[in-house]
Amino acid sequence: AILGYRYRFSETSRNTSSSDHNFTFGVHGKIIRGLNGDVRIGYQFRTPDGRAQSTEAKYQSWTAATSASYAISKRFSLSGTIAKDFSTTATDSSVDALTAGIDASYAFSSKVSLNTSFTWGDSKFLCESGRVVLEAGPTPVLGEQRHDTYVNWSTSTGYTLNEHLRVGVSYSW
Prior knowledge:
about 0% helix; about 70% strand; mainly beta
């Protein structure tokens, strides 16, 4: 079992800052038979520093940092990740981001392999009341009304000529 605490101080170019406190618990190593990795979940909160500290600017939520892998056979393996955390954008907005991804890898031989991955992400903007998050563009997107979702898919293949040279091709969408 793992118990953890993380303190993170963030500053922006707009002379604002915030402090994050993150408390987690979890496991490391063998999760269940055949499944190895790290699983950490917990609670975190963010408070502004050096500006009007209204209750609207304080955020709290669950948090996660997980990664796990499973070898289906000697040639085929799967791995996955889930992460949830606060971040700060370049425009000084607090964001609550959740991402999840899965990767598959298959080795045709010791020289040829194929990999594919799929990632999904969701970003919920947590702007303090009255602050403009994005001022450019025809329709400004303000604070809590902004919610971004994305997906990414990629695949790659590689050929290992020797221990010094590996050639690969990839595609991402």
